[in-house]
Amino acid sequence: MLSDLPTHGGELHTAGTAGRLNWLRAGVLGANDGIVSVAGIVVGVAGTSASLAVVFTAGLAGLVAGAVSMALGEYVSVSSQRDSEAAQMDQEKRELAAFPEAELDELTALYTAKGLSPDTARQVAEELTDRAPLTAHLEAELGIDPDDLASPAQAAGASALSFTVGALLPLAAILLPPRAWRVPVCVAAVLVALALTGSVSARLGGSSPRRAALRVVVGGALGLALTYGIGHLFGTAIG
Fold first, then answer.
1. 80-139 tens-digit pLDDT
2. C-beta separation of 201 from 212 below 8 A
């Protein structure tokens, strides 16, 4: 596995850097989901002219349900990924033990396909095999770093936490202002937060922050308008 490498041009060449960026991006997106989901609930319920207690109960229920759902979904997803990776690692171990020469030829062919000359590819394959054969084959053949596997429990916890942090914003924004200002303050706070999360997510992905922020703000505004309209329409009609 690659250890820490020098930097150039502002790029950090470190083992696991891409994985950490993916985790950070997932955290930002989880917070974004929490903001949008709970904001839609509390604004929709507020549209029915419900009491503060009802708005709080609905928002809290949405927060808890969303965090649990995110955590369970992430745990199942990462657990399935880990099971698949474990099976692939076991298979590669068996192949290395039973057919070492064939595996060396396979590794050489992989590096040749990447553009190395046959002699250089053979030398690289031999040196990597002498150092850590399983790691060399897992990284080259399967794109698996055995020292940087995702943890289902950590993924579930991070997903639930990021969703909860995001969800607390609209919940606080709808509860703290006076009654007449609840919805406007909540909408404004949510749109600002969405602009920030959209910008951060875009920067992590190397795309345009302004364009990403505009997309999530417009989408969030439309979603809040829709939920408020539904709450106002059906809450008035049923009430």
1. 988 998 898 899 889 889 998 998 888 899 899 988 898 998 998 889 888 888 888 888
2. yes
End-to-end CA distance of the chain: 64
Tell me the two tokens of residue 218. 């417009």
* CA–CA distance, 113 with 141 (Å, rounded to integer): 12
Domain with 153, as residue range(s), is 25-238
- Is residue 10 situated within a structural domain? no
118: amino acid identity, one letter: P
Radius of gyration of the chain measured on its C-alpha atoms: 25
Q: Note whether residue 143 is domain-resident.
A: yes
Query: Look-up: residue for tokens 């030398």?
Result: 123
4 in a structural domain: no
> Which two tokens mark 120?
């250089």
Nearest-angstrom CA–CA distance, 235 and 93 = 62
Crossing angle for the helix pair 52-98 and 152-175, to the nearest 10 degrees = 160
